[in-house]
Amino acid sequence: MNGLYRPRNDRMIAGVCAGLARRFGMSPGVVRVLFVLSCLLPGPQFVVYLVLWVMMPDEDRYMAGAR
């Protein structure tokens, strides 16, 4: 399994959707569309995105820790 990190490439805003897509073997575009559609529903989607942005390491930090 791949780790959960924000990649340098494929970022639109912070790389959260791209990181989730890599982790679960999906296309980043699909994850982005699912996130946008989920924002139409009531709930804390933006808060979850912000928390993931802060909690997920970027690719450089993840690779440095994996060595």
UniProtKB/TrEMBL annotation:
Alphabetical UniProt keywords: Cell membrane, Membrane, Transmembrane, Transmembrane helix
Subcellular location: Cell membrane
Topological type in the membrane: Single-pass membrane protein
Cited Pfam families: PspC
Residues annotated as transmembrane: 30-55
InterPro entries tied to this protein: Phageshock_PspC_N (IPR007168), PspC (IPR052027)
Residue intervals of the Phage shock protein PspC N-terminal domain: 3-59
Superkingdom of the organism of origin: Bacteria
The protein's name in its UniProt record: PspC domain-containing protein
Organism of derivation: Actinomadura monticuli
Lineage, highest ranks first: Bacteria, Bacillati, Actinomycetota, Actinomycetes, Streptosporangiales
